[in-house]
């Protein structure tokens, strides 16, 4: 049974290779959460195959929803709104979630809320700790590397972003060069712990004032180093390559975040996205902000990867504003974060 | 009250059937807009008929073959509604749905869809709509060869008929007939009529009828088969 004054949002996320649903109370409390992962199915291809992801979503979606309600001992009568990731992401995968959410909202005549995937990642932090504004978020994932400034709930300004590869993408490419299986990021992190920064790859800061990122140069440096060593018949320790690469990535991420937090005098710094699970990044951010008068939150590992709880957390804000979507809601693989915040 | 829908081809089609007759039907050809238009179309015919979601008793859905994305839009919608409203759902092949506008004609009916690169998704049915040949994804030449062994006249039904009409006439001659333009489309009204007494499927277990493996998976299986043979 639900408590009369609270708001329960049933949220759905299918933007990539996880079929996920969750029930979130008042944007802050996870009542239940279910994720059906497809990692094993995509592993054999060395990456996510979009059509296969879509096929799994349509097969698993209703079962995931049923399990989510059952875990919460709730029925659709206890739900106040249905939220779904509208974009960005894989269009075919997003479409399954969107069609499902619309059918649910229509069947029970509930408000429908389309949510931006990155807003979701940012709001994963709200499940742990209330936001203090102005807030700065470092978004790091397989598809995104951004610094987002928030002056209030639902207001997003992208002050820096990657000019080429996303940070997670660079991890995956380096993993491939090192012959590490998909998904590469966590493996590189693990290897790096046993190595040392012997190669000291370049730290790419771009222009002095810029909060933008670039990882393609670093990626090329790693590939060239491995290639040259191979030609000369020298052997490099995989652990050292992983560690040297990771140190370069983390240093730039942490320094740019630190500088932006000073320039904008923020009260709260949060981290979001799959790469937020990286142990070295978490450690380095902790050290950098330790003596600062800024609150730093890093989500627990379970909330770094794609999940529906974060979508429910972000949707609560739209619910309060009454920013609902119509039944014509579509999947939008190129949805813009700043525009999403303005509607 | 029965709700039927299909979005596996360029035509979006929805209908309401009260168990005796079709009471609402809406079809629209507008490729790539199925995602934005399916739910509003359902909302519209239900409002017209003053039917509330909880008054629905059964859902019938075209499960493909056809556009992969299109199939999943109707299927996600139908599965979710059936599961959450706790009513039965029936999946009908979209080729079967397509043949329904011609099954009263003399001889057999072949419904097919262009699957590109010379391939078609095709099925062959008798007057009652029973399958004569299993539905398959096959090269048009091979499919015509299979059809050539029957003496019955065959009526061809397809939104893509124009691409193949002269080829089919050339090979099969007078025994090949083509449905008129208004009969070349899937109609949810006929889908409801056909599926209304069919046995339902557990909504969790209802899956698309793609008739084709994902290319990456087919390649992976082929490579695996080769390496297994070498061992
Ligand atoms: Zn994500």
UniProtKB/TrEMBL annotation, chain A:
<dbReference type="InterPro" id="IPR017860">
    <property type="entry name" value="Peptidase_M22_CS"/>
</dbReference>
<keyword id="KW-0963">Cytoplasm</keyword>
<feature type="domain" description="Gcp-like">
    <location>
        <begin position="30"/>
        <end position="312"/>
    </location>
</feature>
<keyword id="KW-0479">Metal-binding</keyword>
<keyword id="KW-0012">Acyltransferase</keyword>
<feature type="binding site">
    <location>
        <position position="278"/>
    </location>
    <ligand>
        <name>substrate</name>
    </ligand>
</feature>
<feature type="binding site">
    <location>
        <position position="117"/>
    </location>
    <ligand>
        <name>Fe cation</name>
    </ligand>
</feature>
<keyword id="KW-0819">tRNA processing</keyword>
<feature type="binding site">
    <location>
        <position position="189"/>
    </location>
    <ligand>
        <name>substrate</name>
    </ligand>
</feature>
<dbReference type="InterPro" id="IPR043129">
    <property type="entry name" value="ATPase_NBD"/>
</dbReference>
<dbReference type="GO" id="GO:0002949">
    <property type="term" value="P:tRNA threonylcarbamoyladenosine modification"/>
</dbReference>
<dbReference type="InterPro" id="IPR017861">
    <property type="entry name" value="KAE1/TsaD"/>
</dbReference>
<dbReference type="Pfam" id="PF00814">
    <property type="entry name" value="TsaD"/>
</dbReference>
<comment type="similarity">
    <text>Belongs to the KAE1 / TsaD family.</text>
</comment>
<keyword id="KW-0808">Transferase</keyword>
<feature type="binding site">
    <location>
        <begin position="139"/>
        <end position="143"/>
    </location>
    <ligand>
        <name>substrate</name>
    </ligand>
</feature>
<keyword id="KW-0408">Iron</keyword>
<protein>
    <recommendedName>
        <fullName>tRNA N6-adenosine threonylcarbamoyltransferase</fullName>
        <ecNumber>2.3.1.234</ecNumber>
    </recommendedName>
</protein>
<dbReference type="GO" id="GO:0005737">
    <property type="term" value="C:cytoplasm"/>
</dbReference>
<feature type="binding site">
    <location>
        <position position="121"/>
    </location>
    <ligand>
        <name>Fe cation</name>
    </ligand>
</feature>
<feature type="binding site">
    <location>
        <position position="172"/>
    </location>
    <ligand>
        <name>substrate</name>
    </ligand>
</feature>
<dbReference type="InterPro" id="IPR022450">
    <property type="entry name" value="TsaD"/>
</dbReference>
UniProtKB/TrEMBL annotation, chain B:
<protein>
    <submittedName>
        <fullName>tRNA (Adenosine(37)-N6)-threonylcarbamoyltransferase complex dimerization subunit type 1 TsaB</fullName>
    </submittedName>
</protein>
<dbReference type="InterPro" id="IPR022496">
    <property type="entry name" value="T6A_TsaB"/>
</dbReference>
<dbReference type="GO" id="GO:0002949">
    <property type="term" value="P:tRNA threonylcarbamoyladenosine modification"/>
</dbReference>
<dbReference type="GO" id="GO:0016740">
    <property type="term" value="F:transferase activity"/>
</dbReference>
<keyword id="KW-0808">Transferase</keyword>
<dbReference type="InterPro" id="IPR043129">
    <property type="entry name" value="ATPase_NBD"/>
</dbReference>
<dbReference type="Pfam" id="PF00814">
    <property type="entry name" value="TsaD"/>
</dbReference>
<dbReference type="InterPro" id="IPR000905">
    <property type="entry name" value="Gcp-like_dom"/>
</dbReference>
<feature type="domain" description="Gcp-like">
    <location>
        <begin position="31"/>
        <end position="149"/>
    </location>
</feature>
<dbReference type="GO" id="GO:0005829">
    <property type="term" value="C:cytosol"/>
</dbReference>
């Amino acid at each position: 049974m639900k408590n009369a004054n609270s708001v329960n949002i049933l949220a759905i996320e299918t933007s990539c290779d996880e079929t996920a649903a969750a029930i979130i109370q008042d944007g802050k409390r996870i009542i239940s959460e279910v994720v059906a992962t497809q990692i094993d199915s995509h592993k054999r291809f060395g990456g996510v195959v979009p059509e296969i992801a879509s096929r799994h979503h349509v097969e698993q979606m209703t079962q995931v929803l049923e399990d989510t309600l059952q875990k919460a001992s709730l029925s659709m009568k206890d739900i106040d709104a249905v939220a779904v990731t509208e974009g960005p992401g894989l269009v075919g995968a997003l479409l399954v979630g969107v069609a499902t959410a619309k059918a649910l909202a229509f069947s029970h005549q509930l408000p429908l809320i389309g949510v931006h995937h990155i807003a979701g990642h940012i709001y994963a932090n709200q499940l742990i700790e209330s936001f203090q504004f102005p807030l700065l978020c470092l978004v790091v994932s397989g598809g995104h590397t951004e610094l987002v400034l928030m002056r209030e709930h639902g207001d997003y300004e992208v002050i820096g972003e990657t000019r080429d590869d996303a940070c997670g993408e660079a991890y995956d490419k380096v993993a491939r060069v090192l012959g590490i299986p998909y998904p590469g990021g966590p493996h590189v992190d693990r290897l790096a712990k046993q190595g040392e920064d012997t190669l000291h790859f370049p730290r790419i800061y771009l222009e002095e004032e810029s909060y933008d990122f670039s990882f393609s140069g670093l990626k090329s440096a790693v590939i060239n180093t491995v290639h040259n060593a191979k030609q000369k018949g020298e052997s490099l320790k995989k652990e050292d390559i992983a560690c040297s690469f990771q140190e370069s990535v983390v240093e730039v991420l942490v320094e740019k975040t630190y500088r932006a937090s000073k320039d904008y005098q923020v009260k709260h710094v949060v981290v979001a996205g799959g790469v937020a699970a990286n142990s070295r990044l978490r450690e380095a951010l902790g050290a950098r902000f330790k003596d600062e008068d800024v609150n730093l939150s890093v989500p627990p590992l379970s909330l770094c990867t794609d999940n529906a709880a974060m979508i429910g957390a972000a949707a609560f804000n739209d619910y309060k504003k009454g920013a609902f979507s119509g039944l014509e809601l579509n999947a939008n693989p190129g949805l813009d974060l700043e525009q999403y915040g303005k509607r | 009250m029965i709700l039927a829908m299909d979005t596996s081809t360029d035509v979006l089609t929805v209908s309401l059937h009260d168990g005796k007759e079709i009471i609402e039907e809406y079809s629209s050809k507008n490729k790539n807009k199925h995602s934005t238009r399916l739910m509003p179309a359902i909302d519209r015919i239900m409002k017209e008929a003053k039917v509330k979601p909880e008054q629905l008793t059964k859902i019938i859905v075209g499960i493909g073959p056809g556009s992969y994305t299109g199939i999943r839009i109707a299927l996600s919608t139908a599965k979710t509604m059936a599961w959450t409203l706790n009513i039965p759902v029936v999946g009908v092949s979209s080729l079967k749905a397509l043949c329904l506008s011609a099954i009263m004609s003399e001889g057999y009916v072949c419904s097919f869809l262009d699957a590109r690169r010379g391939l078609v998704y095709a099925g062959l049915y008798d007057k009652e709509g029973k399958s004569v040949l299993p539905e398959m994804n096959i090269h048009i030449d091979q499919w015509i060869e299979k059809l050539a062994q029957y003496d019955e006249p065959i009526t061809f039904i397809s939104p893509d008929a124009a691409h193949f009409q002269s080829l089919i006439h050339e090979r099969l001659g007078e025994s090949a007939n083509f449905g008129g333009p208004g009969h070349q489309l899937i109609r949810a009204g006929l889908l409801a009529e056909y599926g209304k007494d069919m046995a339902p499927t557990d909504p969790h277990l209802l899956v698309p009828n793609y008739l084709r493996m994902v290319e990456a998976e087919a390649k992976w299986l082929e490579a695996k088969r080769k390496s297994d043979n070498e061992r």
